[in-house]
């Protein structure tokens, strides 16, 4: 993919400018999408299918952040009931996505299984199944023996499991890049190294976006900027209480068949890829790196944080120092686009713990090595539900952000829904639970499950 990069990579970009191989930065588009992650790019694809002149701006690289660093689960299983219609539609789209985009995304219908370590977890799965009766049509409870038969390599006894055979997996970077390439093939433009400074609004409606390289006029702006969305919305006096947590993921060497379904249980998340290597991570454990903004809007998160305190590790160090340095030496606009591509160190201790846990849980996994580990910045909202909203009070502004670590699998349905909203179509799926104003009104609830 040859997206237009606006950074000065001498000599290639300089020569390209001189020779005129790169077009000038567009001054206008039908729609500007802020964010080159999978949500923004899926939206760009479906907008381009509809004939809109679309421009995506990304301060880093396509799939450079969380869209290329997540686990790769595509699941309807054990989601908040409010997300289920969206998840079911997304799963339908994933099945035909490679044909629709004309390129591979790594899709495999392998199923998803959550093992219950005790009767309390099993009862929680049963309660969820009851709450989504009629929506989660293939999900079912397995007893101990059924779980053992499905996972013969699992050494740990269970109280049973929740299993959804229709769920699956895809490769995050591959899928995100496929959306980008397909969108470009339909005429969408993608500008990398182009950070958004501010959304231009006048008279209560969108007029465009100010970027670090100039203004782009547009009647529609989609804010799909992930963890920095709250910064762009704050200047419009829109409330988005958003925080960031750091999640560590590892890739193992090739293993014998451990689990065909995507697996969660006993503290471990596991996705075995087509080549036999495994993506592993802590099931629900993240790092919270304290920054200057950590205590902003803390009231929205305090209840959930206290209830799930063991799921978070607080770290005071480099992130806070970087914030202080930026505040002292960088201008406001520069801070808006920095850090452009932050180095997010993986929690090596947790990676080693997960590797040991994998060996303890699964036969044949004891000798596996770690090929590499990495970290991703997950943007979270107080109720762990996203914002997908075109009724923000600013005409032409659509927000699609805050997917709280489980947005990858929803992306095709979100992109299609946002594209429809941009064209004035009433959403075919219920999106009321995802309104932005739920935070200003105080009508949001607690997370369905620990973040």
Mean pLDDT: 89
Overall spatial form: globular
Number of helices: 14
Number of strands: 22
The largest pleated sheet is described as: 8 strands, mixed
Indicate the structural class: alpha/beta
Helix content: 25-40%
Q: Strand content of the residues, in percent? A: 15-25%
Rg of Cα set: 22 Å
Strand order of the largest sheet: 6-7-5-15-16-17-14-20
Report how far apart the termini are.
Answer: 34 Å
Regions with pLDDT < 50 over 5+ consecutive residues? 4-22
Notes on the protein architecture:
Residues 4-22 have low confidence and may be disordered. This protein has 451 residues and is an alpha/beta fold. 30% of the residues lie in helices and 23% in strands. A hairpin with a 5-residue loop joins strand 16 and strand 17. It has helices spanning 12-19, 38-49, 84-95, 97-101, 119-131, 144-150, 172-185, 229-234, 298-307, 318-329, 332-337, 348-361, 411-422, 438-441; strands at 4-5, 31-34, 54-57, 73-74, 112-115, 140-142, 161-164, 168-169, 189-192, 196-202, 205-211, 214-217, 220-223, 243-252, 262-265, 268-272, 278-282, 286-289, 312-315, 370-380, 387-389, 397-401. The strands form five sheets. An eight-stranded mixed sheet has the order 6-7-5-15-16-17-14-20, with helices on both faces. A seven-stranded mixed sheet has the order 1-9-3-2-13-22-21. A three-stranded antiparallel sheet has the order 10-11-12. The longest helix has 14 residues, at 172-185. It contains 14 helices and 22 strands. Helix 2 packs parallel to helix 7 and helix 3 crosses helix 13 (411-422).
